[in-house]
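step: validate -> pass
step: tokenize input -> pass
step: predict -> running
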Amino acid sequence: MKRVFVSLIALMAALVSVSGQNSDMFFSVTKGDSFTYTIRNAEGEVEYKYTYSNKEVNGADLSDASVLYGYQFWKGDGTPLFADNGMMDMKITLNSEGTTSYMYDMKKSMAIQDVVTMGDVSSLPSDIKVGQSVPDGKINIKVKSVGASFLLTERKVLSEEVVTTPAGTFNTYKMDEHQTNKVLVSTKTFHIITWYAKNIGCIKQEVYDKKGKLLRTLELTALVQK
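step: predict -> pass
step: emit ->
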């Protein structure tokens, strides 16, 4: 259980004006947008792939909004990560209690512990600049009766870089930050470097343990935007 939430989220987590695309923010809230990522281990071998799409968008502003994401996960050999063809839903809400990620299946939640992106795009200012220190971010996680939290600290914008992946070429901001995951009595800290693009989110990411050892990389490899 202690590793259940090691890399959940963040996803793409939150929503500013949910009535359509908002090119000033570091995520998409347009229904039907779809993003595919490939995860490699430290040796460069493909371990997982996943696609998520915006299935349902509700709300009008940051005070009370939600997005329902539909995920599909595969192992490196292309087989589904779990039953139901690797399908899983995740709901992100933003309200007076902050940003919360809801999942509905404990077994599936455990299966994706080292798959999805880290970080918290919901707390990234739209006007970030190179050299800027970004305020801490926090995401609450709920899986039935189990709760957890992700805290993002020491966040700094390192540079602006043009990044090319199989999904295209993107203007990005390279960010350095630390993520602390608290699940029950377990606490783990990671050092993450992420290249973020506006209106999309994570383009690529490197995840290190607290001793500086590379654990995995993640890259956006396909993109569909309405």
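step: describe -> The chain has one domain: 34-224.
step: cleanup -> pass
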